[in-house]
Design goal:
globular, 7-stranded mixed β-sheet, NAD(P)-bd_dom_sf, Rossmann fold, oxidoreductase
Length: 441
């Protein structure tokens, strides 16, 4: 019997738990799911004979280490700041570790120790980062193998609401961590375009009306991710003049979010007292309100938009133009906004989310310039079995299976960019209808 330990039973864990449980009888696995919320674990695991729920405080070292000592493999879906506790324990007790989170500076310091211990710590093994790395590297390696010279690489990914559930003026619903949505892009973005490094400040990140066409969906807007340059050397594309990774949204979302940034409502630095403050007072902190005109007109004047603008419809939808009081005590603007979007942009039980990922690669081969498009669309089942949970969780589950079957020889701290990882994982993802379509021009 092999033991798998999963830390975290939140939104992204649903499909991973389903995958592990369905494979457990055949693979002879036992799965322990650890989270601070026992009811949440049980809602995801049911009464399976192959699962043990463990309600623990992740910061409780003794409880955490006991679970890690008793397992064969650890998967962490904890908030990123908590991974380091798990990583250090896995190193101490000689356990392989998989997570969907970015490699952070703290774990980077352990790189040599991980390799010396003969362990595999696979980070960025989810959706974005994860499936993006695997699908991109498969294309890059294939082009290079055939003698192609790559001149431009652009990769886009977004967690969206599917067209049939797209029924609010924001064209968006929350299918993952709402705090990450609120703080997205707050460091600005850096990428390379035609040989020049471009930097975009947070204030202007969402107001660039750049769009890309996706087959069967039409136009989606995009904004560049925080630091695309970080991945140039990992992808071995150091000489490529254009390299950008970006996030996809419906165009209306970007326009509305740009407004929230301009109003200062995404700021997470200073706290304000909200107990006797109305939502309108909160939303109009930066404006000079004229009491003789309506809330709508005041905001419209400040933003320089028409009183009939769809942006005002978006603000009204979030309840930002009414006189209700907030009553959340001392909070940052970002925390108040998170509270608002968690209720106003929540997915209803029957709602479906949608993941869209696309790569554009320009290359020259035998004197011919070619642009390759590769795209994937995945739609969720409902507001629990989401496309987000599926695309984040399944790559982790598949790699866990490959490791426990001793089909992976890779050791050290890695992201999934080697054929040994991406070939079998992408192949099995196709069984779950996560597949890429390719076209050339």
């Amino acid at each position: 019997m092999k033991n798998i330990l999963l830390f975290g039973a939140g939104k992204s864990a649903t499909s991973l738990i389903d995958y592990l449980v369905s494979n457990a009888p055949r693979q002879k696995w036992h799965i322990t799911v650890a989270d601070h919320d026992l009811a949440l674990i049980k809602s995801k695991t049911g009464k399976s004979y192959y699962v043990t729920p463990a309600a623990i405080d992740i910061r409780d070292e003794a409880s955490r280490q006991k679970l890690i000592q008793e397992t064969d493999l650890v998967i962490s879906l904890l908030p990123p700041s908590l991974h380091i506790f798990v990583a250090k324990d896995c190193l101490q007790f000689g356990k392989n570790l998989l997570t969907a989170s970015y490699i952070d500076p703290e774990v980077k310091k352990l790189e040599k120790e991980i390799e010396d211990a003969g362990l595999l710590f696979m980070y960025e093994m989810g959706l974005d980062p994860g499936i993006d790395h695997m699908s991109a590297m498969k294309l890059i390696h294939s082009i290079e193998k055939k003698g192609g010279q790559i001149s431009a690489f652009r990769s886009y990914c977004g967690g969206l609401v599917s067209p049939e559930s797209n029924d609010n003026p924001w064209q968006y619903k929350i299918s993952w961590n709402a705090r990450n949505v609120v703080l997205a892009g707050n460091s600005g973005a850096t990428y390379r375009d035609k040989g020049k490094v471009k930097e975009v400040g947070y204030q202007h990140l969402f107001d660039q009306s750049k769009t890309i066409h996706i087959p069967s969906l039409g136009k989606l807007a995009y904004y560049p991710n925080r630091d695309s340059l970080n991945y140039i050397s990992a992808y071995k594309l150091d000489e490529v003049p254009t390299f950008m990774r970006a996030t996809l949204r419906y165009p209306d979302f970007c326009e509305g979010w740009s407004t929230l940034v301009k109003l200062g409502l995404t700021d997470d630095t200073k706290k304000i007292q909200t107990d006797n403050m109305t939502y309108y007072e909160w939303a109009s902190q930066q404006t000079d309100s004229d009491p003789s005109i309506s809330h709508e007109e005041n905001i419209a004047n400040y933003l320089g938009i028409s009183a009939k603008s769809k942006i005002l419809r978006q603000l009204k939808f979030l309840g930002l133009l009414n006189g209700e009081t907030i009553h959340l005590g001392e909070q940052t603007n970002a925390s108040v906004l998170q509270h608002i979007i968690e209720s106003k942009l929540a997915m209803e039980p029957a709602d479906k989310d949608m993941i869209v990922m696309t790569h554009e690669i320009e290359f020259e081969r035998r004197g011919m310039n070619t642009r390759m498009h590769s795209y994937m669309i995945s739609v969720g089942e409902d507001n629990v079995r989401t496309a987000m949970a599926k695309t984040v969780g399944l790559p982790l589950g598949i790699l866990a299976k490959l490791i426990l079957q001793e089909k992976v020889t890779l050791k050290g701290l890695h992201i999934p960019i080697s054929p040994e990882i991406y070939n079998p994982v992408l192949k099995e993802l196709e069984e779950f209808n996560i597949r890429f379509e390719e076209s050339f021009e």
